[in-house]
Amino acid sequence: MDYQNRAGSKFGGGGVASASATNADRRERLRKLALETIDLDKDPYIFKNHVGSFECRLCLTVHQNDGSYLAHTQGRKHQTNLARRAAREAQLGKDRDQNLSGLSQVQIKKNVVKIGRPGYKITKTRDPLTRQLGLLFQLQYPEISQDVEPKVRFMSAFEQKVEEPDKQFQYLLVAAEPYETCAFKLQAREIDRSEGKYWTWFDGDSKEFWVQVTFKTEREERYSGVPGLAPRR
Fold first, then answer.
1. What residues form DSSP beta bridges with 199?
2. How far is CA 65 from CA 72, 76, 129, 179, 225, in A?
3. In this structure, are 128 and 215 located in the same domain?
4. Do 144 and 72 share a structural domain?
5. Does 88 lie in the same domain as 138?
6. In the predicted model, what is the mean pLDDT of residues 129-138?
């Protein structure tokens, strides 16, 4: 900045610069610095509008010339927005990578030719201590696919696609490829899922699948979840 040849100052004395002169000199220095590091042709945020002004698409600001825009790119506002944009893009890229990795782990459903229903045997059971009623299912899967174990789930009557479902019954579903899914019609009573009451086991040698289902007693169903009553062990 020329501190000597300024109006109102003595030659060689270097008068005090005004605020406007200081700002003009700062903008000029920032413009020169930006020209050394920024190529406007490769700047994705600069836009020249129909009146010849320059706009910053990142900060939504308008500048009269390229020098003003370059000075703006070196300011705090533009640099902060650049950091925010970079952090957001990094997070989006991380989420996208996680989604892709999750998709790669999804097993593609194959069209498996069903070979019919497995053989099964049902035995009624009763707990000698609690007198709870139950059922023991034994299903044979001699042609079950390798590394496949049968899956079990309970289906209520309201999950069926019928107009008038019978709420007095529920269904036990057992699925294992390449066999068809078996459905057993049970009473709509609450299942006792405590240890030793409900369990499944697959014998890989004999290809036999066991399911033990025990129903809660009427008293347990009636007072289940009542405050003040200790849970049964």
1. 212
2. 11, 19, 91, 75, 75
3. yes
4. no
5. no
6. 91
| Boundaries of domain holding 47 | 20-96
What backbone torsions phi and psi does residue 96 show, to the nearest 5 degrees? Answer: -65, -40
Alpha carbon 194 to chain centroid, angstroms: 32
Do 156 and 87 lie in one domain? The reply is: no
Distance separating alpha carbons of residues 132 and 214, to the nearest angstrom: 7
Considering only CA atoms, which of 211, 158, 147 is closest in space to residue 182? Answer: 211
Nearest CA to 184 among 143, 219, 213, 164? Answer: 213
133 and 84 assigned to the same domain: no
The helix/strand/coil state of 198 is coil
Question: Which residue type does 168 have?
Answer: Q
> How many residues are given for the chain?
233
Q: Which pTM was predicted?
A: 0.47
Q: Which region holds residue 77: left if phi is over 0, alpha if psi is between -120 and 50, else beta?
A: alpha
Query: Are the beta carbons of 72 and 78 closer than 8 angstroms?
Result: yes
What type of residue sits at position 19?
Answer: A
The C-alpha atoms of residue 188 and residue 191 are separated, in whole angstroms, by 9
pLDDT in tens, 157-192: 788 776 777 888 899 999 988 888 988 999 888 888
CATH of residue 176's domain is: 2.60.40
In a domain, 129, yes or no: yes
Q: What is the count of structural domains for the chain?
A: 2
Say if residues 112 and 177 touch (Cβ distance below 8 Å). yes
Asked whether residue 24 falls in the same domain as residue 83, the answer is yes
163 and 214 housed in the same domain: yes
